[in-house]
Design brief:
The protein has eleven helices and eleven strands. By secondary structure, it is an alpha/beta fold. InterPro entries: LysR-type_TF_proteobact-type, LysR_HTH_N, LysR_subst-bd, WH-like_DNA-bd_sf, WH_DNA-bd_sf.
């Protein structure tokens, strides 16, 4: 029975998932020629062709597709070994990656990281700012701050609290367009879109907000950019009350309106939670985020 080089298997898996040698090389931090040699070596060891080139892309052959099923299982097992090894580390030093929305990353995390630096100066915190769901199972992040509870059984999550949000606008915008007195007045105002407008409308319509796509005259997938558009007078935007309190140049719209509530979940991998450094960061985040 022939022993296969794990580097060759890993090169095949990355190429199959990325669809090209160049993308796979970037993912594995290798040069494209090196990655290509590793894939070719695996093909030579197996005596089959795993890819065929179609234009600039690589497509799996039937043999490659069959092998991919087994290799993915091997990759998942390797990830579990890495997670278990990380979880056994009892030294409070090294890298911990936290993923949160860009707004939370910019407004909420800096003072928390300053506190962590005092208690664990050897930690290196990597903030992965983004609104997409990062894959903790594949170690893109060690801890995630999200507004939805994860569904994967290997992840553990703690509901920190229900946060409150309101609508805000720049005073000069409200001076120009008038300050809404009722919810019905909002249909005459411009709104800032945050990422998926359809999703925003699905959330707001059951609450009685009479707005449509026509009200959204500017927006961005970046929460930071959308918030700055609001601050500079381009329209009304929803925001976490705590972050709005830290922002100069915005005014709450319809101050008597009931707040919009949304949960804050803190998530990590079950095995990583046994690591002292992950546990420390997780607990410090939980304590800090629990405060409105």
């Amino acid at each position: 029975m022939k022993d296969f080089d794990w580097n060759h298997i890993r090169a095949f898996l990355a190429t199959a998932e990325q669809g090209s040698l160049s993308a796979a090389a970037r993912k594995l931090n290798l040069t494209q020629p090196t990655l290509g040699r590793q894939v070719s070596a695996l093909e030579a060891d197996l005596g089959v062709m795993l890819f065929e080139r179609v234009g600039r892309s690589l497509h799996l052959t039937d043999a490659g597709a069959e092998l991919l099923e087994h290799v993915r299982a091997m990759g998942a097992a390797a990830d579990r070994v890495s997670l278990a090894a990380s979880g056994q580390s009892q030294t409070i030093e090294g890298r911990v990656a936290i993923t949160a929305s860009d707004v939370y990353s910019a407004y909420l995390l800096p003072p928390i990281l300053a506190r962590l630096r005092q208690s664990a100066p050897k930690l290196v915190i990597d903030v992965v700012a983004g609104d997409d769901i990062r894959d903790i199972m594949r170690r893109e992040a060690d801890i995630a701050i999200r507004h939805v509870r994860p569904e994967q059984p290997d992840l553990i999550a703690r509901l920190i609290r229900d946060s409150e949000g309101h609508f805000y606008a720049a005073p000069d915008y409200l001076d120009r367009r008038g300050r809404p007195k009722t919810v019905d007045d909002l249909k005459h105002h411009d709104f800032i879109g945050l990422s998926d407008i359809d999703r925003m409308l699905e959330y707001l319509h059951p609450m009685g907000f009479p707005i449509s796509h026509d009200n959204f005259r500017a927006g961005s997938a970046s929460g930071l950019v959308a918030w700055e558009l609001c601050r500079q007078g381009l329209g009304i935007a929803p925001m976490d009350a705590g972050i709005a309190a830290k922002t100069k140049g915005v005014e709450r719209v319809l101050p008597d309106l009931a707040p919009i509530t949304f949960p804050i979940w803190l998530t990590t991998h079950r095995e990583l939670h046994t690591s002292r450094k992950i546990r420390l960061v997780f607990d410090v985040l939980a304590e800090a985020l629990a405060k409105p």
